[in-house]
Amino acid sequence: MNNMKIKNTFIALCVAGLSTITLFAQAGSPVAPAFQSAVSDITSIAQVSGTLIGGLVGLIGLGRTAWKLVNGDSDVMNSLIMAIIGIFLGAMANTFL
Q1: What's the mean pLDDT when you consider all of the chain?
Q2: Are 93 and 47 in contact (CB under 8 A)?
Q3: Helical residues (DSSP H) of the chain, grouped into ranges
């Protein structure tokens, strides 16, 4: 008798859970386009900011390279590599995000 009560309670909880999931799915369907729009906005913001930051790092690196070439510093290649990596990362952010 006790096992039958546990079984009936379990079945009732499963039915209640499934109906709750159905209600949540129906409630979420009108809101889904707004969330999709927000996700697209965030993705485009991340793409633009990644491109901008990578481009600025590359530009600063090129400026440092030019300054070091004019002044005869020995670590010109480090600045040039930083500039190339910055430009490359900006292009990757623009392409892949």
Answers
A1: 75
A2: yes
A3: 2-28, 32-71, 76-96
